Structures are given as C-alpha cells and as structure tokens.
UniProtKB/TrEMBL annotation:
InterPro entries registered for this protein in UniProt: AtLOH3-like, DUF4371, RNaseH-like_sf
Domain of life assignment: Eukaryota
Domain DUF4371, chain residue ranges per copy: 3-175
Protein name per the record: Zinc finger MYM-type protein 1-like
Originating species: Nicotiana tabacum
Gene: LOC107819162
Pfam family, one: DUF4371
Length: 570
C-alpha cells in the first residue's frame, strides 16, 4: 500500500510535468514539495493509507527519498516505453528528429516514432531525449541507433525520416539522411512542410521591399506598446470601451466564444500562424492602437518616446499601410488551413498535398478576381478610421522621391507592383519549395486516395510506388500486388457503404481493418500504411522541447539527463 501511494502520487505529478521536490523537505518545512505534499493529502483523506506512509512507515522503508522518487519515475518511463513498443509490434516506423538547447545550454536530441497501430490510427510517440555533445551526422546517427537498440528496434524497419531543418543541426541533415538511407534504402526523407511554409514568408519579405517594411512597422509598433505594462493595460481598457459601445449599438452580439479579448502577439520567426494571428488582431484593435500611440506621443516620458510614437503613428495611418495590412492578412489566410493541418499528428501526406494544391488555387483565384474586393475592404476600413484615400488615377510618387513622379498611377503601383507581385512571389515560393510533391513517391501515394470512388486511381503509378520499397516488394510480390489491385478497385467501387464516402487514406485504412480485409489486400494495405507514416511535419518533436523547457527550467536547471528523459517519456 505504501508503494502504491508513492506510485500514484508520482504518476499524477508526471502527468502535469510538475516538480517533485520542494526547497526544503525536512519535517518542519512548509514547502516540502508536491511529492510529500500529495502524500500528506493522502494521509489526511485516506486514514487506512495514512497508517502506513510517511511518519507511520518504518524509517528505513518510507519510499519517499529522492533516489526512490527517481526509481519510480524511471520505472514509469520503462513501462510507458514498453507499451509503446508493444503497440508498434515490430511494424515499420518513421523517425522524427530535432535538436534544441535546454536551460543549461546542453544540446539535446529528441526522437519520436511515427507508425500505424492495429486500429489503423496514425500514432506519434516520443521515445527519448539524448544529450549530444557533437552534432555531426555520424554522432547523430549513433545516438539514434543507440536509442532504437535500447528498445530492440532495427534501423532496417525505418521507412521515413523527418527533420525540422531550422535547428542548429540543419547543416548535418543532408549527411544524416544519407547515412540512414544506406542502412535502409526506403527510409525516405521529406523536408518538414511546416518549415518550408515558413520559409515562403521569409523569402517573400526578402524579395519584396514593401512586405519587409510592412512587417518591420508592425513589429516596431507592437514593441513600443508592449514594452510597458501601463500601455498594455491602456490598450485593453480602450478595447473594452470600444467593445461595450459596439454591443450597445447592436453592431456585434454576445455569445459563447465571441468577442474574446485580443492582445498584442508578436510574429514569431519560425511560426506561420503567429503572423496570421498578429495581423488579425492588429486589424481588430487598430483604433485602440492608434489611441495608445497618440497618448504616448503627447505624454511620453522622454522626447525619444514621443517622437518614436509620432513617427509610427504617421506610418500606420496611411492608405498604403492599411492596404498592406489587409493584403498580407488575406495572403496568410489562404495558407492558414494548410498550416493547421501541418500541426496535426494524425494527418497523412496525401491530405497535406491536397491542402497545398487548394492553397495555390486560392492564391491564383485571388490574383485573378480578388483585386476589387480587397480595394473595397481597404477603402471601407480607411473611411471607418478617417484615413485619407488617395485618388487612384493620380501619379504615384515613391516615398523616397516625393518630387519625382514614377510615371505610373497610384492604382497601377498598388495593383501591379504590390498586389500581383506579392501573390506571384508567394506562388513561386510554394512551387519551388514544395517541388517534392511531384515525385514518383507522392504521385503514387496520391493514387491511393479513396475520395470520389478512387477518382485518382492509377494502377501504373501505384506499381511504381511499390518499387520504391524494394526490400518489401520483390518481383513475385509486385506480381501479386498487380492481381490484388485489379480485384481491389472493383471491390471498392462496388457500392459497399463502408467504402463509399471515404475522405482520405486514413479512412481507407480504418475501413479495411473494420471489414477484416487487411489480409485479403495485404499488399495494398501495406502501401496504405507506408503512405500514412511518411512524415511531412515535425510538430510532435517541437512539442517535446516545449515540455522539456517546462520541466527543466531556471529553478530546476540541475536535472540529470536520465531524470529529464524519464519525466518527458512519462
């Protein structure tokens, strides 16, 4: 019973990633930490338990010392990993790897396994964190293989590799993926789609000066207001007043989840979604931002603050800034659903590619038909905030040369030099950075998509896909797959309700399991599984590092590597 109490408390603390020990664990201490604190709660609430724990336990068998706590945590980690490896059941898997510094500036490499379980669910499980003093390709490979060996997993079972590409080890990725493919030729590497998507925005800022200037102004304004808690409080107060006025006038309505407080979120360097949220919030609280800058302009404590606020105010209450604000929000919105898909661990690469195609089509549609609606939105916004709207047929004078006309009208500058140019750069970057979607591997996988009664089904391309996995498909198995595919497609299109409204490869896998057809179409199901596990994002590994920074923080910066790893696994 004593051991049971210690294990229960440890599991609860591990579940929430909290600290076990307090500042002082002596009997007279008022801050003994959560482990002893929860045991005392046990003692108070469960008299039978209280009779055998803490002071009522034999002094040499209290099961509460730090060593015992670490032993319990290690045992929990081992049981967790045992369950994960059992769930994998010797099947093929993909490795997702990333690297980051912990609070003590030690290089830590995280490993996540992606696989399909017996219920045809795509699963991503964190299995270990390793301190790597050397981030060369050979050292990283040894660290990965050592972890796999600990769990009796063979590198020959690897069927894909996923890396962020934005970490400190990005220079070694090329060498690492090559080394692993030497041992497992079918361990295909797909560059993280989420990172590629972010790079399109970075490239757009570098290639288009107006975009770069715009994000610079947005960041500076947010910094000026966000640097002081008094200014942030003023912003919240002004926004609350505006919200109350709109509710009273009936322009907006109350409801659950509506009218939530909008804050100042700075755009992150490596997060597409943060830019979208920043611009969305900027538009909603625009009038409040203007008011705060006006207050700083007149009441700032130094002349530098007042002049800075005056300058930024003059920059953002212009038609061009408002135009860029609405344009960039629309461009980012086109890819926002793709960004959300890339953060979900249960999505497959075929689905991600479909959303990529949708994103490019929407951008093209916006280029062809979206100019008038954008201009209407910008003009309406300017009317609402008393911003001067220039005459579109007048000559455009570049900002750096106010006296010299550019020879074009203002409408031409906005439409051709900015609207068309920005969309064209974004489309070009999407095409360049996601060129992998046209590979034989992904084209074959796309032909397994069951949407619209397997409208994309192409036996030839699926056969080519199978040949991408020579270790599993020899000449005899390729022949058997050919026979299976002939029967399979007839069966799928025969009108069975189980297969008539499938929305993706994941649905197909589950339907084959539910109808006990996995053995009948074993080779088809294998290709389906290989499609599902092929990685396209590394969000799960990044979440592991978020947990690491929560667990090993400034107050717990002396945690050992094994202790940290065990806490993360649990």
């Amino acid at each position: 019973m004593r051991l049971e109490a210690s294990i229960d408390v440890a599991r609860l603390i591990l579940l929430y990633g909290l600290a076990f020990r307090g500042h002082d664990e002596s009997e007279s201490s008022t801050n003994q930490g959560l482990f002893l604190g929860f045991l005392r709660w046990h003692e108070d609430k469960h008299p039978d338990m209280g009779k055998v724990i803490l002071e009522n336990a034999p002094q040499n068998d209290t099961l509460t010392c730090p060593i015992i706590q670490k032993d319990i945590i290690n045992a929990c980690a081992k049981e967790t990993l045992k369950a994960i490896i059992g769930d994998l059941n010797g099947d093929y898997f993909v490795i997702l790897v990333d690297e980051s510094n912990d609070i003590s500036h030690k290089e830590q490499m995280a490993l996540v396994l992606r696989y399909v379980d017996k219920n045809a669910e795509v699963v991503e499980r964190f299995v270990g964190l390793v301190h790597v003093s050397d981030t060369s390709a050979c050292s990283l490979k040894e660290a990965i293989y050592s972890l796999l060996s600990d769990y009796s997993l063979s590198p020959s079972q690897i069927r894909g590799q996923g890396y962020d590409g934005a970490s400190n080890m990005r220079g070694e990725i090329s060498g690492l993926k090559t080394l692993i493919m030497k041992d497992s030729s079918s361990a295909y590497y797909i560059h993280c789609f989420a990172h590629q998507l972010q790079l399109t925005l970075v490239a757009m800022s570098k290639k288009h000066l107006d975009v770069e200037d715009f994000f610079c102004h947005v960041t500076n304004v947010l910094n000026v207001i966000g640097v002081s808690f008094k200014r942030r409080d003023l912003l919240r107060h002004l926004q609350a007043e505006k919200l109350e006025q709109l509710l009273e006038s009936g322009e907006i309505h109350t409801g659950r989840g509506l009218n939530q407080e909008r804050g100042l979120q700075r755009p992150g360097d490596t997060r597409w979604g943060s830019h979208f949220k920043t611009l969305d919030n900027f538009i909603v609280i625009f009038s409040s931002i203007i008011r705060v800058l006006e207050v700083i302009e007149h009441e700032g404590s130094t002349s530098n603050e007042r002049n800075q606020a005056k300058y930024f105010l003059s920059e953002i209450i212009t038609f061009k800034f408002v135009f860029m604000l609405h344009l960039m929000l629309k461009v980012l919105a086109m890819s926002n659903e793709l960004n959300k898909i890339l953060q979900k661990r249960d999505q497959d690469i075929v689905n991600a590619v479909e959303f990529l195609k949708i994103t490019k089509k929407r951008l093209q549609d916006m280029r062809e038909t979206g100019w008038e609606s954008l201009l209407d939105d910008v003009s309406s916004f300017c009317h609402m905030h008393d911003i001067i709207i220039p005459k579109m047929d007048e000559s455009y004078f570049p900002e750096k040369s106010k006296r010299k006309s550019s020879g074009i009208c203002y409408s031409h500058h906005l439409r051709v030099d900015i609207f068309y140019a920005v969309i064209d750069v974004q489309l070009q970057e999407l095409n360049d950075r996601f060129g992998v979607v046209s590979s034989e591997l992904l084209l074959g996988m796309a032909n397994l998509n069951p949407v619209n009664s397997f409208a994309n089904f192409d036996k030839g391309r699926i056969m080519v896909l199978a040949k991408c996995y020579p270790n599993k498909f020899d000449e005899v198995q390729i022949r058997d797959l050919s026979y299976q595919l002939d029967t399979f497609i007839i069966h799928m299109r025969a009108g069975n309700p189980k297969f008539s409204n499938l929305q993706g490869i994941s649905d197909l896998a589950k339907a084959l399991v539910e109808t006990n057809l996995v053995e009948t179409y074993s080779y088809v199901y294998l290709l389906v599984k290989l499609t599902l596990i092929l990685p396209f994002a590394t969000a799960t590994v990044e979440r592991a590092f978020s947990s690491m920074k929560q667990i090993k923080n400034e107050e717990r910066n002396n945690m050992g590597d094994q202790y940290l790893n065990d806490c993360l696994v649990c």
